[in-house]
Q: What sequence folds into this?
């Protein structure tokens, strides 16, 4: 029997990070005006950390718009605890799926899944992940990597002038440093790459916590938005590493698409 996206998600229960309970993903947000459901890859994945960074950046606006956020990432409860501590994401909003079963039920892109002779499933996943990082079977990845270094005049400034970024092995950098790379008020060269380096340092320093099972590293995620009547109003299915957003310059533009252009422009400049 055919099931729509809302039915599939609503009929699944996963472990919630805050209390360890097995609960409905929609628990506590049934009456929200809009429900934003994020299917994240492995919690130690570039995409997971970067996507939630954007959510946290706009969290006050998201709440003001009456949008309830829930995320399901691949990992275990310890993965989720590390993830929330690093990103600031609310533990009540994060659920974990150890094997990405819900991702498969929703037919999200599994990434490369070649089985290599003499290699374990985790080792094969590593090889497949490296191939995807090189752009094989991973749509748009190389272009997005280069955008992180090149900068993007269509994207907002990401690091405040007074903000200090610690991204090992680089020394601590103050946000004003990036003015030397091209100015202010937009995503400067190396700015996004520095944030990604910080994320990578966090994960590599706590690898076993973030990635308890490497077998699922290539699994990609998706974004689903429902209205108060549980109708699907927006979806995006990732087709590659760093492909979590239809609009990489401002990944949350779909949330505020109904705002007047002047308000959206002000939002982008923040």
A:
């Amino acid at each position: 029997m055919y099931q729509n996206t809302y039915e599939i998600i609503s009929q699944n229960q996963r472990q919630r990070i805050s209390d360890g309970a097995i609960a409905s993903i929609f628990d506590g947000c049934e009456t929200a005006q809009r429900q934003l459901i994020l299917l994240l890859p492995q919690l130690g994945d570039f995409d997971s950390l970067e996507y939630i960074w954007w959510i946290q950046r706009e969290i006050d606006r998201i709440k003001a718009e009456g949008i309830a956020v829930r995320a399901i990432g691949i990992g275990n409860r310890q993965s989720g605890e590390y993830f929330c501590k690093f990103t600031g994401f609310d533990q009540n909003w994060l659920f974990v799926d150890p094997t990405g079963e819900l991702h498969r039920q929703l037919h999200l892109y599994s990434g490369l899944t070649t089985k290599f002779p003499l290699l374990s499933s985790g080792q094969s996943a590593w090889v497949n992940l490296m191939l995807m990082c090189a752009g094989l079977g991973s749509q748009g990845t190389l272009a997005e990597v280069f955008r992180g270094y090149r900068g993007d005049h269509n994207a907002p400034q990401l690091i405040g002038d007074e903000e200090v970024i610690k991204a090992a092995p680089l020394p601590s950098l103050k946000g004003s440093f990036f003015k030397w790379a091209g100015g202010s008020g937009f995503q400067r060269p190396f700015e996004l790459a520095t944030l990604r380096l910080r994320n990578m340092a966090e994960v590599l320093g706590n690898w076993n916590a973030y990635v308890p099972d490497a077998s699922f590293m290539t699994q990609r995620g998706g974004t689903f938005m429902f209205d108060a009547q549980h109708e699907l109003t927006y979806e995006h299915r990732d087709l590659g590493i760093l492909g979590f957003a239809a609009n990489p310059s401002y990944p949350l533009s779909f949330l505020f698409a109904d705002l007047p252009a002047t308000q959206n422009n002000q939002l982008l400049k923040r």
User: Anything to note?
Assistant: Residues 74 and 99 are 6 Å apart (CA to CA). DSSP finds ten helices and nine strands in the chain. The chain has one domain: 5-268.
